[in-house]
Design a protein that fits this description.
Radius of gyration: 16 Å
Distance between the termini: 26 Å
Order of helices and strands: HHHHHHH
Strand content: under 5%
Number of helices: 7
Number of domains: 1
Length: 167
């Protein structure tokens, strides 16, 4: 049974590597860039939705700074989603596309760092290993059911409404 914190950290590393792979093909044709971007865009959307479905509701129940961390995370997810939508709406390789990809990368990088220092540490400190493993099982099942991105909500959320709905 995997710990949800470890699963999230693993996905963060995977996201970092996928962005680095885009750097390696910067001058490639649009179809090559699209083939690299599409799985990353799906991963970003799926990861945010999984955190919102499983991780943050649990954090709101046990975390010490959970409301602040959750509000920040939902806002970050909205920024990431907005950038992904912008990238998906223009020609891969165009200046607009690269600007949107950079915005997604920066928002995601900031989010991961904040989450690793804050929310993940908060859950580790205030939920036991058994609880985190149970969340890890739910994360694994949710991720498998949505591996191709189908059924993943891709709309922005109101952070305050999210917190009220899960607190």
């Amino acid at each position: 049974m995997p710990d949800i914190c470890d699963l999230i950290l693993d996905e963060h590393e995977h996201q970092r590597r996928r962005f680095a792979e885009l750097d390696e093909v910067r001058d490639a044709a649009a179809d090559v860039l699209a083939r690299r971007w599409e799985p990353l865009a799906t991963l970003l959307e799926r990861h945010a939705a999984a955190e919102e479905a499983i991780f943050y509701p649990a954090l709101l129940q046990v975390g010490v700074a959970a409301e602040e961390e959750t509000e920040d995370a939902i806002s970050d997810h909205n920024d990431i989603r907005d950038a992904v939508r912008r990238a998906n709406g223009v020609e891969p390789g165009s200046e607009e596309w690269w600007q949107a990809v950079r915005a997604a990368r920066e928002a995601n990088s900031d989010h991961m760092g904040e989450e690793e220092r804050g929310a993940l540490a908060d859950l580790r400190a205030h939920d036991d290993a058994e609880g985190r493993r149970a969340l890890g099982d739910r994360w694994t099942a949710w991720s498998a059911a949505h591996a191709d991105g189908s059924g993943v909500p891709d709309h922005d959320r109101d952070p305050d409404a999210y917190i009220r709905g899960h607190a």
